[in-house]
Amino acid sequence: MTLARYFVTRSRDEWLVTLDGRPVGRHDTKAEAVEDAIAMAAHMGGMEHDADVVVEPGAGARPERVWTFGKDPQPRSGYEDDARASHIRRVQRAATS
């Protein structure tokens, strides 16, 4: 498995989510960026990649891993209570040995 590590970092007046050094999301707040990064990492984890989210807090502070697939709770998709997504149903993956 490959590691999908999402970084959340401040850049001027926005928060970036990056993967492999490339921006994959831009947000006004840190909370939005972390939430988006976790959703992306959870998606990659669901495709059998190791995945986590690391926040780079700024100058002098150490990066902090804030979420790891398979260890931390899965994020809500936002579709559970959304009437517009009535066509989406959850599918449980069979256990593999």
- Domain module count: 1
General shape: globular
The sequence of SSEs as H and E is EEEHEE
Strand content: 25-35%
Average of pLDDT: 82
Structural class: alpha+beta
Assembly classification? single chain
CA radius of gyration is: 15 Å
SS elements, strand count: 5
Q: CA-to-CA gap between the ends? A: 16 Å
Fraction of residues in H or I helices: 10-25%
Strand order of the largest sheet: 3-2-1-4-5
Low-pLDDT windows of residues: 78-85
Q: Helical segment tally?
A: 1
Main sheet overview: 5 strands, mixed
Task: Note down, in words, how this protein is organized.
The protein has one helix at residues 30-46, and strands at 3-11, 14-19, 22-27, 50-56, 64-68. By secondary structure, the protein is an alpha+beta fold. It has one domain (3-85). It is globular and about 35 Å long. It starts with a strand and ends in a 29-residue tail after the last strand.
Provide a short characterization of the protein structure:
This protein is α+β, with helices and mostly antiparallel strands. It contains 1 helix and 5 strands.
Write the layout of secondary structure elements.
Layout: E1 3-11, E2 14-19, E3 22-27, H1 30-46, E4 50-56, E5 64-68
Parallel strand pairs: 1-4
Antiparallel strand pairs: 1-2, 2-3, 4-5
